[in-house]
Amino acid sequence: MRAAIFEGPGNVRVEQVPDSEIELETDAVVRVTHAALCGGDLWSYRGYGRREPGARVGHEFTGVVEAVGRDVRSIRVGDVVVAPLTFSDGTCEYCLAGLQSSCVDGGVWGEPGHDGAFAEAVRVPYADGTLVIVPASLHGAPDRVLPLADVMCTGEHAARAAGVGFGMTVAVIGDGAVGLCAALAASRHGAARIIVVGHHADRLELAKRFGATETVQAHGEEAVEAVMSSTGGVDAAIECVGAQLAMETALAIARDNTTIGYVGTPHTVSGVDLASLFNRNIALRGGSCPARSYIPTLMAQIAGGGLDPSPVFDRVVTLDGVPAGYTAMDEREALKVMITG
Predict the structure, then answer these.
(1) Is the whole model's pTM more than 0.90, yes or no?
(2) Where are the domains of the chain?
(3) Architecture label for domain 156-286
(4) Which residues contact residue 280 at a Cβ distance below 8 angstroms, ignoring those fewer than 6 apart?
(5) Is the pLDDT of residue 341 over 80?
């Protein structure tokens, strides 16, 4: 079968690899019908992190189950499923607490020994604890379902971590797919004012479709001044970039005794001003999203018509077009790329 392989910074290729197959009786094999490039995929592409050449890539996918191990109970051949960004056994203390991203036997797609999402098929460990069945009403709507693999759930995780509630003024730092979904989640949680801070005029315009009541096209001190002059400080700040300046901005615009929710992978965050957090009684919460715990509820809302994250996608490529998809997102020509089988 074909799969996308990381060969080094700026170099992703689609190559022939061995077919995915059942290795343990708790596994399933899923034929990938749709996958998505994530801003997080760009970190290794740009030379950050420790991804080794030869690694599989991709962590967001939906597809059809083609095989299951003998111990799989809730997933059947032929089911249409969506996979969260991490796999998990569903039985450890963290999984039972809804923190599947900390599963003691779990892991991340594309890590050594595991398939990546940008492939014709994926072996899914712990199929019962990982996969979520897509209802028939959404079988023809991959653009609405696929964001549940990561960005919509991560936006939800950020809003919850920040304690977003009814009537609040919320600022979202970052105008990527996660930032837009965080705005959508903040709206869902009843925020009265939602300010999205970013660099890109087209994305900030799109943010209004995701619930933003205001946008700020600026960064650093200019962004802080704009938000502070408008609000005097926000009730909750959400950091969706993973960069030092974004974290500093979130801290600067948060009111005392509030919470910063952070979900940006912190590859370029060198430190946090603990003294400021301490003196101002500001909490910092967030981290890796346990998407598996959020998918069922958000899926039901999508199926019911109350939630639609599909506008995050603005480009579609085939599996052979994955390298071009990386380039488009790296050069900010695309917000989020969908990959079809």
Answers:
(1) yes
(2) 2-150+290-340, 156-286
(3) 3-Layer(aba) Sandwich (3.40)
(4) 254, 256, 257
(5) no
